[in-house]
Amino acid sequence: MTAEDYKNGQVLLIDKPLEWTSFQVVNKVRWLIKKEFGIKKIKVGHAGTLDPLATGLLILCTGTYTKKIDTYQAQEKEYTGTITLGATTPSYDLETEIDQRFDISRITSEKIKQTARQFMGAIEQQPPVFSALKKEGKRLYEFARAGEDVSVPTRTVHISVFEITKVELPEVEFRVACSKGTYIRSLAHDFGKALGNGAHLSALRRTKIGDFSVEDAMSLAAFEDRFSR
């Protein structure tokens, strides 16, 4: 592939590694392309953020294809992951420490599956305060990390699939298909509440965006290898 190919536009499917931010992946890919072809400037953007503690499909667009980002972002997304019952965290995932514990001895597999059905269709969801959404020009996580209270408005999202694939308490494995703007961390938190308990997201992997699948994605290391041959 040439510099012109990247400038004219490419869609790159990357399997985001654990603990990388989506922004770091974009920066790495942009740097590799610039270094390989000795060019000063190349547009690279991603079509939908993944949290650092999530892995899976990240769509990157280069050059003129960055204009298509909004189209890809609007498509339905699919995830698999693990919800851990019996404990909550302020970030709704493992980014922060457990702040409250609950007794899970009375929770059954049947109750878990019944509760999951409550989240099908259009639901109101409050994004986590530990998120990159902006309010008054600041990221919400900046308020949260500074210990400041901030109100986060709810939003309507759509869940077309919420399948419980395995129950091995305290862990519950799932598959979700959902609309743009859905926070799986919030889904995990709200799921715990609906059970009359507490929960947080302990693992997450994005497997699909529209017709794109993580099975067709390459690792960041494999992308880098393209340039070291």
- CATH architecture classification of the largest domain: 2-Layer Sandwich
- CATH topology category name of the largest domain: Pseudouridine synthase
Average per-residue pLDDT, rounded, comes to: 92
State the share of residues found in helices, binned by percent: 25-40%
Residue windows where pLDDT falls under 50 for at least 5 positions: none
Strand content: 25-35%
At the first level of CATH, what is the class of the largest domain?
A: Alpha Beta
Which terms summarize this structure?
single chain; 229 residues; alpha+beta; Pseudouridine synthase; ten-stranded mixed β-sheet; two-stranded antiparallel sheet
Note down, in words, how this protein is organized:
This protein is α+β, with helices and mostly antiparallel strands. It has 2 domains: 3-74 and 212-228, Pseudouridine synthase, CATH 3.30.2350.10; 77-209, Pseudouridine synthase. The protein has helices at residues 3-8, 22-37, 69-73, 109-117, 140-145, 184-194, 220-228; strands spanning 11-16, 44-46, 54-62, 77-85, 87-88, 100-101, 121-125, 134-135, 138-139, 155-168, 171-178, 199-209, 212-213, 218-219. The strands form 3 sheets. Strands 1, 2, 3, 4, 7, 10, 11, 12, 13 and 14 form a 10-stranded mixed beta sheet that branches. α2 (22-37) runs parallel beside α7 (220-228). The longest helix has 16 residues, at 22-37. 32% of the residues are buried.
